[in-house]
Write a structure and sequence with these properties.
The complex is a heterodimer of chains A (110) and B (122). Chain A is built from no helices and 9 strands. With 110 residues, chain A is an all-beta fold. In chain A, the strands form 2 sheets. In chain A, strands 1, 3, 4, 7, 8 and 9 form a 6-stranded mixed sheet that branches. Chain A starts with 8 loop residues before the first strand and ends with a strand. The model of chain A has no long low-confidence stretch (mean pLDDT 97). With 122 residues, chain B is mostly beta strands. In chain B, 0% of the residues lie in helices and 47% in strands. Chain B contains no helices and 11 strands. In chain B, 40% of the residues are buried. Classes of the chains: A mainly beta (110), B mainly beta (122). At the A-B interface, β3, β7 and β8 of A face β5 of B.
């Protein structure tokens, strides 16, 4: 059972907007920034969003992040087939003195 | 090119030991916190351990304390993970991951290696 809770799956058709949620607590998301990672099977995970809503260089602006209280969200607009991947949220947890990941959400582009 | 290359994975019997290595290149290794993250087959990402630049702040996932030891050699641009008393549930792809230059709790895992597979089985 992951400390950060994500839906196991999400789906959308090309061009649609999809959101993936990440729910935590006051000891993690409520106190620290959230980062998001994209992972395609067989490849290295990739940093997608950092500090709640910042995009690294090279990440399309179709990807956006937000945070409110103890929850965070990743939004993907203009969905494309190459967006099919697993998406993970992560944050530091003060009570554990650990980094914690969400369980991952598998995005399917229908 | 910024790069992390893991090595040392393989097949180990339960109770055995193994040391993973990670060779860094293309950046000033001694300036960055470093981490290990793993992914068991069919499961999600799991953070394993973090070490800061002078190796005086080290953190481990609670489930691993006492069995795994993270270390680094800044002169050799290398990160290590010594794993003892290995269990079947330690079977996973282990990724070497670059953190940030400040406090580890605000790290951003921005560079990931391709991973090395550890299989623990009798």
């Amino acid at each position: 059972q992951s400390v950060l809770t994500q839906p196991p799956s999400a789906s959308g058709t090309p061009g649609q907007r999809v959101t993936i949620s990440c729910s935590g607590s006051s000891s993690n998301i409520g106190s620290y920034t959230v980062n998001w990672y994209q992972h395609l099977p067989g490849t290295a995970p990739k940093l997608l969003i950092y500090s709640n809503n910042q995009r690294p260089s090279g990440v399309p602006d179709r990807f956006s992040g937000s945070k409110s209280g103890t929850s965070a969200s990743l939004a993907i607009s203009g969905l494309q087939s190459e967006d099919e991947a697993d998406y993970y949220c992560a944050a530091w947890d003060d009570s554990l003195d650990n980094w914690v990941f969400g369980g991952g959400a598998k995005l399917t582009v229908l | 090119e910024v790069k992390l290359v893991e090595s040392g994975g393989g097949l180990v019997k339960p109770g055995g030991s193994l040391r993973l290595s990670c060779a860094a290149s293309g950046f000033t290794f001694s300036s960055y916190n470093m981490n290990w993250v793993r992914q068991p087959p069919g499961k999600g990402l799991e953070w394993v351990s973090s070490i800061n630049t002078p190796s005086d702040y080290i953190y481990y996932a609670d489930s691993l304390k006492g069995r795994f030891t993270i270390s680094r050699d800044n002169a050799k641009d290398s990160l290590y993970l010594q794993m003892n008393s290995l269990r079947v549930e330690d079977t996973a792809v282990y990724y070497c991951v670059r953190g940030g230059v400040g406090a580890q709790r605000i790290d951003v895992f921005d560079i990931w290696g391709q991973g090395t597979m550890l299989t623990v089985s009798s």
